[in-house]
Write a structure and sequence with these properties.
The chain is an all-alpha fold. Helix 3 runs antiparallel to helix 4 and helix 4 runs antiparallel to helix 5. The radius of gyration is 62 Å and the shape is rod-shaped.
Length: 198
């Protein structure tokens, strides 16, 4: 019977011996006397990176853009360059349009001036021809002894220029002096100079 009473006491003693020590007995950071090691190299065994095959230092690769990102950056740069080129082309086209408009306006102005000058020359030629016809009629009056040719002389003097106009003025002076032959000769010279454009 005594043996049965001692079994529970032995059991309690065995349990007490198998329990781990309390947390208070451990060292700093719950590691006890030994420090906790992290990583693959133990303390004091760290080695620098080996030299590169070309004798330089191994360059650490950073987390830069990968190939897809580089392609995207290149494509964006290309798009930006094309947009700038398109804007420049647009500006050049606008300048070219303005230049074309200016040239068209200059051509139109020159054509208008040419046409106006041609019309003026035609009107001048018509006026000269009318004055020449009037002088022919004045010569016939003078041949008949009629000195009343002031209207024809005025018309010729307004229409003629240069030597022809001077010839008409001289013929007028000859008529005032009653020199019929000189007046008729000067009217012939005025007709000839007017037709020759002198």
């Amino acid at each position: 019977m005594r043996l049965l009473g001692t079994i529970p006491v032995l059991f309690v003693l065995l349990l007490a011996q198998s329990r781990p020590a309390s947390r208070g007995a451990r060292g700093k950071a719950d590691a006890g006397d030994r420090p906790i090691l992290l990583g693959t190299d133990p303390p004091g065994k760290l080695r620098p990176n080996p030299p590169a095959p070309d004798g330089g230092v191994v360059v650490q690769r950073d987390a830069g853009p990968d190939q897809v990102q580089q392609e995207m950056q290149q494509l964006r740069a290309r798009i930006e360059a094309l947009e700038q080129e398109r804007a420049q082309t647009r500006q050049n086209a606008q300048k070219l349009d303005q230049l074309v408009q200016q040239l068209r306006q200059q051509v139109a102005d020159a054509e208008a001036r040419r046409q106006a000058s041609e019309e003026q020359q035609q009107a001048q030629r018509a006026s000269v021809q009318i004055a020449v016809d009037a002088l022919y009629a004045a010569q016939q009056r003078l041949a008949g002894g009629n000195y009343a040719i002031e209207t024809e002389l005025d018309q010729a003097q307004r229409s003629f220029t240069g030597q022809a106009q001077r010839d008409v003025q001289a013929a007028r002076a000859a008529l005032q002096n009653r020199d019929l032959a000189a007046a008729r000769a000067l009217l012939s010279a005025a007709i000839s100079d007017a037709q020759a454009g002198r």
